[in-house]
Design brief:
Length: 89
């Protein structure tokens, strides 16, 4: 029934359940506990957003073949623009 664990007297690494009254189980959270909950919620949302962005990037990223085609096109256009004589020199 109890969910809270505390270290035993002799052995710090051994945890034993603590019996809590119904009043203690359902008491309002402290300000520190509320802050911890808000931080956990924020971390969860940040992690969720990061995972969603990674999935979206996988869907819209270009293949290597397409990247090479675009690079070639940009180089061709750049060379064409550089070969146009200036009008005002």
């Amino acid at each position: 029934m109890p969910n809270v664990l505390t270290p035993t007297g002799d052995q710090e690494d051994v945890l034993r359940p603590v019996k809590l009254s119904r009043k203690d189980l359902y008491k309002a959270p402290t300000a520190e506990e509320l802050n911890q909950l808000k931080e956990a919620e924020s971390l969860f949302h940040c992690s969720l957003l990061k995972l969603q962005m990674e999935e979206l990037l996988k869907e819209v990223s270009l293949s290597d073949r397409r990247k090479k085609q675009i690079d070639s096109f940009v180089q061709t256009v750049t060379k064409a623009l550089q070969s146009v004589p200036s009008c005002c020199s």
